[in-house]
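User: I'm new to structure prediction. If I give you an amino acid sequence, what do you actually give back? Let's try with this one:
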Amino acid sequence: MTDNIISLDKLPLLKRGRIVKIGSDDIKNRLLDLGLVEGATIQALYENAFSNPRAYYIRDTLIAIRKREASLILVEPYD
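Assistant: Good question. You get back a string of structure tokens that encode the predicted 3D arrangement of the chain. For your 79 residues, that looks like this:
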């Protein structure tokens, strides 16, 4: 892994990242159903005052993911 791999919950708003790994088997199937697959581009778009959940844009869809679940997804940020 490279040094710039971060968890999805750390991805700055309006930045994009490429999904590198989805960590936990507990939620992996649900996230795969939502289109979160390794290699897909995801962008952090919105967050509420408490940063939980955050809204992400992936595959022409806007989805909300809780911080706990986002922390299990590793991304490589890019512009």
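You can read the tokens as a compact description of the fold. Here is one thing that stands out. The beta strands are 6-7, 16-22, 41-47, 54-58, 61-65, 73-78.
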